[in-house]
Batch of 2 targets.
Target 1
Amino acid sequence: MSSRIVNLNTNPCKMCMPLGAVNAFYGIARCMSLLHGSQGCSTYIRRHMATHYHEPVDIASSSLTEEGTVFGGERNLIRGLDNLIALYRPEVVAVATTCLAETIGEDVQAAVRARRESRPDCRTTVITVSTAGYSGTRYEGWFRALHALVSQTAMDPAPHAGVNVVTGPVSPADTRALKRLLREAGLTFTLLPDISDNLDGGCGGTYSRLPEGGTPLAAIARTAGARATLELATFVPEDASPGRLLEQQYGVPLFRLNLPVGLRDTDAFLTALEELGGTIPAGEYEERARYLDAMVDAHKHNALGRAAVFGEPDLVYGLTRLCCENGLLPAVAAGGADCPALKTALEEEIRPLAENTPSARFSVLNFADFDDIEAAVAENDVNLLIGSSDGRRAAHKHNIPLVRCAFPVHDHLGGQRIRVLGYAGAMRLLDAFANALIGSREASFRTEIYNRHCGGKPFGLFPERLDTGCAEPGSPDARAGALRAVPEKKDGKPGPSVVPAAARAVAGKHREAAVNNADKSATHPCFSASAARTCARIHLPVAPDCNIVCNYCVRGFSCPNENRPGVTAEVLTPPEALERFLRVRERMPALTVAGIAGPGDALANFAATTETLRLIRREDPDITFCLSTNGLLLPLYAAQLADLGVSHVTVTVNAADPAVGARIYRRATYMGMSFQGEAAAAMLISNQLAGLRLLTDAGIVCKANIVLIKGINEDHVEDVVRAVKSAGASVANIMQMIPVRGSAFEHLPLISNREHAALRRRCEKLLPQMHHCRQCRADAAGLLDEDQSYMLRGPVPASGAAPAAEAGCAAEAERAPAQVAVAPRNEVTEHAPVKVAVASRSGIVVDQHFGAAGQFHIYESDGLSTRLLETRRVGGNNLGCGMCGRGPLPEGPEDAEQGGGKIARALEAVADCRIVVVMRIGDSPSRRLAERGIAVFSTYDGIDKAVMDAVLARRDNIVAERARDAETV
Amino acid sequence: MYAQVLEERKDSIRVAADAAPIRCGADSVSGAVSQRACVYSGARVVLNPITDAFHIVHGPIGCAAYTWDIRGSLSSGSELYRNSFSTDLQEKDVVFGGAEKLAAAVDEVMRVYAPALIFIYCTCIVGVIGDDVEAVCRNAERRYGNRVVAVKAPGFSGNKAAGYRLAGDALMRILMPHRHQPKSEGVNILGDYNLAGEMWIIKQYMREIGVPVVSTFTGDASYASLVRAPSARLNIVQCAGSMVHLAQRMEQELGTPWIKASFFGVEDTGTAIRRAADLAGSAETRRRAAEFTRRESERTVRLLAPYKARLAGRKAAVFVGGGFKAVSLVRQFRELGMETVMVGTQNGRPEEYEVLGCLVAPDTVILDDANPAELERFLREKGADILVGGVKERPLAYKLGIAFCDHNHERKHALAGYEGAKNFAAEVNLSVNSPVWRHVRARPAPGEKTSSFPSTSSKFSARPALGEKSGEAHARQAGAAECGVFREAGRNRAPASTAAAKTLERGVAALAYFRDEQ
C-alpha cells in the first residue's frame, strides 16, 4: 500500500490504555482487574493477552448496558466488584476505566467510596485508574496503573534498605532474570510490577484462578521508605511515573535509566546496582565477556543488516541502541505512540552510525502505523524487521524476516519467554538478528550471483551498493520476493484502457493462430455469407448476467416466441450446455460453430463461459468457438480467450464518442464500481477498443456489431466503424435497433430499411460489412435462417424428469390436508415410499414436541433414502413448497394458543402422513395418531437417520403384525 | 476447592435432567468474567469477510487493534479486508467530535481506493459524543455513488447476537436496491465465513451435485457477488446464530425461502447436501447428491474408524459461541463414540438448550454465558478429557491438564464438510492422546513428596542405574507417570488396552524401585 491515508490509522502499531493497565496489574499479588465499560473491551484484551502469554487471563467487566450508559454505571460497577470479590477472593481489585466510562463521565472513585461505606467488612482494597483508550497507549496505561497503585496504597514510610525497581512492559522471563540478578547482587528490592509468575506459570501443580505471584500490596506500601527508586524507563510521562511520585511525596531518590538492553545500558544498570550497595555477580562478568565475543563474531553479518525497529518507546529505543552498537543500521525506527522525545532520541542514536556508513539512509517515525512503517521499509531497503508479530504481514509482503521480540506475539509460541534484558538477553537478540540475515542471504546468494554473472547478461554489472548484502533492488531475488508477496489489490480503481501485462504478453504469440482462425471464417455463418447457407451454429445460453445497462435492451428468460438478441427460453449450466451441444451436433451435421451470445454478456459470466468451452473442446477439437460481448472485460480476458481456442469474437460497439455513448448506456459496472453517464461510456469504449486490439493481436478474428438507433447514433456510425477498424476489427455489422417493450428506447422510431442499407453502403468503403445478420436469440441453433432452437427447449430429457414447475403443481395439489382422505391401514405395501412428518425447528435434528411444533417438515422415504417435500405450518396457512422453493418456509413465533385446538391442528397437518417423527409426544395425541393409522417415532436424532429408522421400524411392525394375524387365523 | 457459583448465575447452569428451563439471552452479570464479546464484535465477524469492502472502525484505536486480521477467513480476490482502518480518535476528537475526521477519511479513501463498498463501524463512544455518522454516509454516497454503510455497534447496546442483527440489517441495505432481479436456479450460502476455506468446500459440494451458488454470506464475498443474492431461489443457512435474522429478512422482503443446514460432522454434512438438492435441484441433482453423499460418507467413516477406536469412551466438554455449533459438536463427538459431560455457549437460545438437553446424558452440565470459574469447576468435577472452545478457554484447559480442540475463527484447517469431520477427529485425537498429559497430570514425581518438579531427583536423570539402558529408564519414568494418571482420584478408568496394562504394571514396579532407592 503505497498511497497513504492521513485521516485513518491503517494497521495500528499500538494498543490501548486499558490493556496496559490490566497487563501491569497482573504483576500484583492476589489482584484482579475489572474494566469499567462494555463487555467487549475485557474480552478483546483477554484474547490479546492469552495468545501472547498462553496463560488463562481473567479480566472482569462491569458489562455496561444501554441503561448504565444513560443513567450512570455505578450500580453495575458496585455489583461487578461484589461478584468479582465473591468469585476470586482477591486482596486487591483494580478498576480501570475504558473509553466509554470516561466519555460518559463516570465518577469511579465515588462509586468505590460508596461501596466501601456500605460494606464495611470487605477487606479487599480497590484501586482505580483512569485509562480512556483515546488518551494514550498500552505504554501509558501500564505506568498509570503503577502510579495509581503507589498513590492509592496506604504507605508505610519507615525507612529501610530496600530498592524499588520500576519497569515498563517487559516479558515474564525478563522479569525473572531481573529478579535473579537483583537477588544475586544482594539487594532487597520491590519490583513494580512483577508479572514473572502470573503470566508465565507452570503446569502440573494446582491451578489457582487468582494470580498468587507478583508483588504484594504490603511490599508496595513499603516503597515509600526505600533507599531509592530505579525506573528502567526513559519515556514515562512525568504524571504517570511512580518513581517521581515517591520522590515528591516521600523523598525517595529517583534514578531513571534506560531499559537495560544491549551492552551500554546493561553496563549502566549494573553500575547503578553497585552504587546502591549491590555486588555484581561474577556470572555477569562472564556473560558480558561472552556477549562481547558474540558481538565480534556477528559484526560482519550485522553490518549487512538494515533493520526496521518498531513498537513501544523503551523497547524501540533499547533495541535501536543494541543494533547501533553492533553496527546493524536501524534504517527505520518507529514508535506507534505519539512521543516526540523518542523521535529525537532515536535520531541522535542512529545518526553517528549512519554517517559512518556510505550511502546509508534511515528514517525515524513518530505516531506511526504500519502503513507508514511499510512505506519507510520499502524506501530504505530494509532487510530485517524487529518488533512484535504485528509486523508479520509486512514481513510476508516484502519478503523480509521478522524477529519477534515484543508484545504481542500471536503467531508464534514463547511470547512469555522473550528475553531482551541484560547481557544474556542481548546475546539472544544478537543471534536472532544475525541468523535472520544469514538465513536470507543463504537463500538468495546462489541465484543472485548466477543471474548477475552467468545468466546471459554482459559482464560487469555488479550491484551499486557495496555496503549491504541485501539483494540489489530490482535484482532477480528482490523481484522474486516481490512476486511472492501477495500484491495488495486496489479494487474498485476505475481503469479505462487498463491493459494487463499478461494480456500484452500474449499478443504476438498467436501469429500462427491468426492464419488458422481466418481460415475458420470460411465456415462461420456470420463471418461468411456463403457459409450462412450451409453451415449451422448454436448459441449456448450460459451467460445470464450483464455488466452494462443499455437503453435498448431487456434480457428475457422465458419468451419462446420472441426472436431477438438477449432472449432465451432458459439459462443452461455448462454441463447442460455440453449436453445440448452434443445433441444438436448429432442432429445437425452442418454444425460448425458453437457460440456464447448471452443472454447477458459472455465475459461477465466468465467462469460459466470458460467451463462450457472447455467441456465442449474435450468432446470436439475442431468446432469453431465464437463469442459475443460488450467488450467491457476484454482487456482482462483477451489472453485467456485465445488460450481457450476462441477464434471469433463479436464486440457490440454502439458509439466511439462518450457523449453519444452516454445516451445509449445507462450504467456500467466494472471491478465492483458502478459508473454512469459519460464516465460509463468512456470506460466502456476505451475497453472495447483496447480489447479489440488485444484480440486481433492474439490472432482472433473480430467483428463489431453496431446497433443503429435513430436519433441517437445514426450520424455517428461511420466514426464508430473507423474506430473499430483502427482497433483491428475485420468486419462490421450495422443492425437496426429492435424496440423492445419495457426498454427505455421502446418508443424510438425504427430506422427504415432504405436508410439502413444506405448507411451500410457508405461504411462498406471503410470496412467489409455483414449484410446477412438475422439478429438471433441467445439460444439460437441451426442455420441463420432456420432457427431450430424451439425444438431444443425444455428440460434436457436425461436429467430433468421432473421440471420444477410441474412438481410445484403436484405439491400444490397435495397442500390442503383436508382434501386428503385418511388412508386405511396397510393400504400400501411395505416397500412403497411413505410420507413422514418431522417436528423440527432446526430442520437438521428432530428437536420439537408434537404439540409444540409450529411446523412439520414433510419427507418422503422408502427406508433407503429420504427426500424433503415441503414444510407445513401447523394451522394450515401459508405452506411453503419444498419442491420449487416458492413460498416461505416459516420459522415464526410459536402459536400462542395451547391445548386441544393446537393438537387438532397438528393432527390435521400430518393427516396424509403415515409416520410422525417427534422429540416427544403426549399420550393423548399419540393415541389419536394411532387411531388414524399414523405411527409415532420419538427420537432426537438427525432427521435423515430418524426418518429412515422410522420407516424401517414401521415396516418391521407391519411385517410382524401380518405374521401375528396369520397366526391367529 | 471448587469455586462457588454466583447467586445471579445459578439459573444459567443446569444439568440435562433438570425440568426448569435454563436462563439465557440475558445481559452478562457484572464482574462475573463473562467469556462473551460485544455488539461491535458480532457485527465485525459477520461483515469482515467481505473482502473488497473497506472496513473503517470509527472510534479510539483499541477496537481496531484487537480485530486486525485475527480471523482465518480466506479470499480468492481482494486482500483489502485484512487491513485495519481506524479513525484512531484522540482526546481532542472526543471533545470536538470525530465526524469531520471521518468524512475527511472517507474522501481520502475514495480518492485512493475508490471501493464500491465502505462499512463504518461506530464503537462505544461514537454514539455518546454524538457524531452524525449517517450524515457522513449519506453525503459520501451522494457524492461518490458508491455504498457507504454505517454499522452502529456500540458495545454497550447488547451482546454479540445484537451485532449479528446489525450486520444483517447492513447487508439488507446493500441488497435492497438490487431486489428486482429474476430468480435463477442458484442458492445463496449464509453463515459461513470461509474459515480455512470452508465456504469453498461447501461450494465444491454444490458444484458436485449441480446446484449453482449465487452469493456467499459472507465468506469470500465481494460487493459484486453480494448484490446478485436476490436472484437466488433458496438460502442455505449454516451458522444459524449469526444469519437467521438476515435469512428472515430476505424471506420477507426478497421472497427467498431458507433452510438451516449444518456442515459439521459426517451425518449433518450429508443431510445438508441432500436437503439442498431436494429444494434447489432436479431429480438428477437429487440422484447425484444421494450418490455423492453416500460415497463420501462411506469413505469418511472408514477414515474415522481408527480415530474412533482411540477415542471411544473419552469425555468431552464444549464451550462455544452459539447453540447451533454446540449441538453439532455434541453430535460429532457421538460419531466418535465420545460422551459430552459439559456443554455451554456464550449466546445460545432456549430451543437450542432444549435440544442440547435431549442430546446429552442426564447428568451433563449445561451452562449459558459461563465464566472461567464455572468452567474450571465443571471441567474438573466432570473429569473431561478434552474441551472444545475458543482462544480464551485454551490456556485454562491446559492449566487443568485437559486436552483442547480449537473451534475458533483463527484456525487454519477446515472443520466443515467431510474433510472437516476427518480433521476434527484427527485434532481431537492428537490432543487427547498426546503423551504430554501422562507427564503433566502425574502427581508428585517419583521420589518427591510435594514438588512436581521431577528433575530435582538427580539420581533419576543422571544415572540410568543397574545396568539399564537409558531408554528403559525412560520407559519406566513414563510408566510411573502413567501410573499417576490411573491412580488420580476420580480417574479410575480401566486401562484401555493390554499394552496400557503392561505399562501400568511396569509403572508400579518402577515406583516400588524408587521407593527402595529412597
Note: The first strand of chain B starts at residue 13 and ends at 15.
Target 2
Amino acid sequence: MALETSLEDLNQSYTLFPDRDLANGYELRLEAYRKAWLKCLERVEELIRALHAPVVDRVVELVNNAYTDTLPGLPYTELPVISVTASGTSSSIFDEISSRLKKEGNDGLFDDDSSGGHIITHIFPNDCPNITAAMKTLITDSVKRKPTTSLATIDINLLQAWFDAVCSTRGSDQGSMRLVVILHDFEQFEPLVVQDLFEICSLAIPRVPLVFVLSLSSPPSPSYIHATYPRSTLSRVQLRSCPFPSSQDVLHGILLQTFFDVDFEPLLMLGSSAIDFLVDFFGRHTPSLDGLVSILQLVHLKHFEEPLTVFLLDERLGSSGTTEPNLSDPASFGFLDSLFARVHESSLVPQFEHSFRWADESPGALLSSVWTARKAFQKRAKLLRIAFQLFLLVQRFMLLLGYKTDKTLPELMCGAVRGRLGSSYSHLCAMVRKLRADQLDELLSDLRDFFARVGDDVRKEENEVISRIDVARSVFRGKDEASNIAESLGDWLSEYFQQRLVSLEESPLWDIWYTGSTPFPSELLNPSLRASIFSGLLHPQDYSTTTVINEDDDDDDEEILLDMPDTSILFQRYLESGKMINVYDWFESFSVVLEAQKRRVRARKLSEDAAVLRTPSRRKGKQRQTAEEEDSPEESEEDLEKWKLEVQARFIRALHELDYIGLIKHTGRKADHVMRTVFDAPG
Amino acid sequence: MDDGELLAQNLSEAHPGYTKFITHLSTLASTYLPPFIYITDTNNPRVTASVIDSIFHNISSIPDCPPTHYARINSVVCFTARVFYDTVLNALAGWKPSWENGCQNWPGDDAQRYNDSIDSFLHGLRRLRAELVDGPTPNGKGKGKASASSTEYPSLVILIERAERLSESLPELLVPLTRLAELSQVDISVIMLSSVRWEEIRPPLGASPDPYYIDIDPLNKQDVVQRLVSAFRTTSLALSSSNTSDMTYHPVLQPLYEQYVDMLYSIVSVYTSDPLELQYISAARWPGFVKPVITQYTELVRQAEEERADPPELELPNAEGRLRLLSYFLPTVTAALDALYPRLTNAADWAADNDYDPGQASSRNGGDDRSKTKKGQPSIKVDHLPRMSKFILIAAFLASTNPPKSDMRMFGRGAEERKKRRRKSGSPKKSGGAQTSVIKVSQRLLGPATFPLDRLLAILGALLEENDFESRPHDPRFELPGEYTDMEIGRIHVYAAITELTFMRALHRTTAMDKLDGPPTFKCGISYEVALALARDVEVALNDLLWDPA
C-alpha cells in the first residue's frame, strides 16, 4: 500500500526541483530530450557505420574472392577463415556484414529470402557444447527447409546434398554463392570442438564453399587463434584478419565530428567535464563504442533534469501535441520566477534594462528573451566550432612542419568550450608569424579553402577574417613581403581566435543548451560495489521508496532504527558487535527493535483511531501486522506465539540476505557464532 | 599379371617413394586382402591416404582381380555411429543421396534402416553384397550361382583415416570393425590408417584380432623433390587448360623448379619434411622466384613485337643466372618458413607481400627489409586494452607467478621500503637455494598457479596505488591514503573487465561459473612477454615485483 501511494506521488513529479518546475515540465523535457538525443544518436551511429564500412567491405571482398582467388600450386584447398576483431566496437558490425553478404550478387530475380547472395549462418558458443551439436547447428541452420531425410542432421553430406539442390535451382549463381558461417564470440568456443568442426569442413570444401567469419574480442597480436589451436588445425585454414581500429583516435574522431563539426549542429553541446569523463572512462575501463553511446545518452538524460531545459528547442511550449502549459497559472509562477531571475541576471539581454518595467511585461516578453538567448547561443557555438576547426587546421599544418604540441585533442576541446585555449593559440600564432614564404603560401590557400567550404551565414559573420586572408593572398607575391604578411596573419588569427574561442558559459541562459561543468553521474554507470551495498544498508531511505523515515517524530539515532527494514537493523547491530557475533544475542537485540516498532505502530494506530473514530478504511501499518493484533491491545497467548514466529522468520530472512551479500562467514569454530567480514564500514 | 605390374608402375610414378607400399598393397588386393589391415604412418598420413585411394580406384582394372568397392571414411567426420554407417554404406554402394528424393540413404526408396545399430549395419552389408553380386547379372539369383565362381565375389574395402579418433569417439565400434568380415560373413577388408601405433588404441582383453601391419617409411629427399615436381606438372597442366596467360607454371620452367625445390628442401627439411608443407611453402615463394625470368621474357616479347619479329620461346636462364636467382632468394625462403610453417600468415598473402620487386633487385636492402618486417610481425601490441584491464592482467600474472606467501613482503609496504626489502630478501634466498640440494623450479616454468579473486584484487589495489594514482582525476571526497584506490578496485567495471578478460581467455577461470560459495579462482593466461609489454606500457617495473625474476 505504501508502495502504491509513493509511486503515485512520483508519477506526478519526476522532478528534482518541484519549486521551480512547470506542472507538466517532465513531459515537455522528455520531449525535448528525445529530439536532442535522437539527433545526437543518429550522428554517432552514422559515424560508427562509417568506421565499420572499410571492415565490412574487406570482409565482403574476402568472402566473394574465397575459392576463386587462390594461389596456384597449393597442395590442398584451404578453408577460408576471416577473423574480425571487434573488441572496441559494437556487435552491430556483424549485422552489417551479414546483411551486406545477403544482398551481395542479388540480381532481384528471386523474391525468395534464401535466393541470391550468400547464405549466412550464425553460430553461438552455447550452441556448441560438443561436435554433434555444432554440426547440427551448422547444418540445420543452413538448410532452411525441414528435411524429410534419411541422412542424419549432423551429416555433412546432408549439407552437400542441400547445397547441390540449391545450386541447381539457382542455376548460374553456382560459382558465386558461398555458405558463410559466422562464429560469434569465438574465444568462448571449445577449442576441441572447433578443431573438429574445421577439420570436417575442410574435407567438404570446395564442393561446399564454406567460409567462416570469426568474431574475436582479443587482439590481433598476440593472436588467440595461434596460441590456442594446434598447427594441424591452422594448416587446414587460410586465416585472414580484419582488425577494427580501436583506440583513442576513434573516440576523438567521433567527439570531434559530433560536437565540433562545421556542418553538424548538435542540439546539446557537451561540456568539459563530460568530455573529460568520457575520455578517461574510455581509456581506463572500456574502449567500447556502445559504452560511448550510453555515456552520451546519460549526459543528455542528466542535462534534462534542469527545469529550464524545456526551452531547448522552442520557447513556445507544447507545440508538438502535449498540452500547452498555462504560464499564467499560479502553479507556473515558481518556474517563471527562476526564469526571470536568470534573464535578469544576464545583462546580455538588452531589451529589459529596467527591472521595474517587469511588472508590466507578460510572459510572452520573457519568452522572446529566451528566443534571443537561443539565437545568441547557437551563433556563438557555431562560430566557436568553426574557429576550433580552423585552429586544428592551422595546428595540423604546423605539425607537419615539425611544430610540437603538448595537448591532446580532448584537452583542446575542453579548452575551446571553456575559453581557455589562449596559450595554445598564441603559441600557434607566434609560430605562424615565423613562416617562410612558400609555407605561408600553402597555409593561406589552406585557409581560403577552409572558408570556401563553410556556409553563407558563417561567411557573413566571419567577413573580417576572410577578407583579411584574401587581402593577404592578393598582396603576397614575393619573398620580400612574406615576413610582413606572416607577421600580420599571425596577429589576425590570434585576434580571431581570441574573439571566437570564448567560454560558452558567458552566453545568457547557456545551461539550456550546454552541459557546462556539471559533473557526470559516474556512480550510475560504474558504481563501487562495496560502497553501494554499505550505503544501501546504512541509508535505505535513499534507495527505496517504501522506506520513509518519519520526519514528524523527533527522532534520535535509536528511533531512526525503528523505521528501517529488517536487514538494515541487523546490519546496524552487526557493526556494533565484535569480531565474532553470537547469533542468539543478535536475534535478541533484533527482536527488541521489532518490539519497539510494533509498540510504536500500535500507539500511532490508537491515536489515529481515536481521531478518526474507527472508520472502516483504516490505514495499515508499514510493517507486516495483522488486523487482529491491532484490534486487540491485550494479546492472547496464541498471538504472542505467532508474533514470536514472525520475528524469528524475519530474522532468518534478514540474516540470509546478509549472508548472501557475503557479510557473514560461517567458521564453525565457535558454537552459535558467525564471523564478521566487514570491519570498517563507512559511517 | 602384366596389368597388375603396369598399374603398380604407373602408381609408383605418380607417388614417388611409395613403390614398395603400392606393390605390396596391390598384390594383396588383387589376390587376397586380409580382413583387417593397420597402416601406421607417423609422417604424412594424408599423402598415404591419397595413395591408397588411387590404388583402390584403379585396382578393378586388373582383369583377374575381384570387383572392388571402396569407401574412404574419415573418423573425425563420422563422429557418431549413425553417420559412420550411412557414410560407409552409401560409399560402398556408390549411392549419392540427393535433395530431390529427400536425402534417402542407400538403398533408396526402401523403408529398411541399416543405420540404427551394428546388427542392422551388418545386415546392410550382407544385402549390399547380394545386390552387388546380383546387380550386374540380373538373371541369376541366389547365392548358389555367385559362389560358383569365386572371382565374381565383390570385395569390399573400407579405409578409415585417423583411426586413432575412433577409439575416442566410437570406442564401441572399434572391436566390431576389426572383425567385420567375420561378423558380417561378407568378403570385406577394413584398413585403418593412423599416425599412432595399433598398440595404443587396441581394445583391451584381446577383443580384436591382430591386424596385418604395414608401416610406411618416411620419404627421402629424392622422393619429396620428385613429388613436388609432379605437383608442378599437375598445376601446369591445370593452368594451361584454363587458358590463363600466367607464365608462372610454364612447363619449360620445370628444370628450374627442380633446382628451386632442391634448395627449398635443403633449408626446410631441418624443420619438416612433410611434402605438403614443402609444397605449401614452395607455392608461396615460387611466383616471386620466377618473376625476374618472366619479366625478362615479357620484355623480350615486347621487343620482338616492336621489331615485328617472331616472339621468342621462353628460355631458362643460364647456369650463372640460376645461381644468382637461388642465392638472391635464399634468405627469403627462411623468412617464408618462419612465417608459413606456424601459419602466422597464409601462403597467398605471403606471396603477395613478398613479390619480387625489380626496384629492389639491385641492392640487398630488399632482403634486409623483409627480415625486419618478419621480426616485427610477432611483436606484441597491447594498445587495444583499456588501462584497467592492463593492470588486471599484470596483477593476474603476478598472482599466478609469485607464491601467495610473498605478497605481504612484495606489496605490503610503501614503495621505497619495499625495494630495499626486496634486495635483502632476494640475496639470502639465492644463497640458501644453492646450499640446500632442493632445486626449486621457477613458477614461470611450472605454469601459472591458480589464485582467488580476492588476491587478484588486493594485488591490483597495490599496483594501482603505486602506479596509477597520478593519472586518476582528482576527487576531493577521498582524503585517507588508499581510500580512493579501494573505491576504484571495487567498481563494477573492474569486475566486468575481469569477466571480459576471462571470455578473451586472457584469464582462465578455474571454478565453475555457477558456483556461488567461495571466491572464484583464476589462472593467468598471458605469457611473460605479454605481461612485460603490458607493464612497459603502464610503466610498472614488473621485474621488481616478481618474487623469482628468472
Note: Chain A has a mean pLDDT of 78.
